[in-house]
Automatic annotation (TrEMBL):
Molecular function (Gene Ontology), one example: glycosyltransferase activity
InterPro entries noted in UniProt: DUF6341
UniProt name for this protein: Uracil phosphoribosyltransferase
Residues passing through the membrane, by range: 32-53
This protein's UniProt keywords: Glycosyltransferase, Membrane, Transferase, Transmembrane, Transmembrane helix
Protein source organism: Flavobacterium laiguense
Amino acid sequence: MTSFFEGIQYLFVNILFAPLDFLRALELKSWFGANTINWIFMIICAVAMVYWIKQLKLHKENGEEFQDTTAHSFLK
């Protein structure tokens, strides 16, 4: 049973966390290089938010937006 848990430890420490160890070492040399993943995610989120807001505006202009003051019909 001990070898099973050591195998899990080897998988996570030596294989799955290797890219994070690389980024940690890279941060000492280049802060921007180490944070490129964060910048990519922020750009993706910003693009998605702009797209979402444009779609909301498009539906509002077409009159397809249904706004009701109650959340459910049984609350009326």
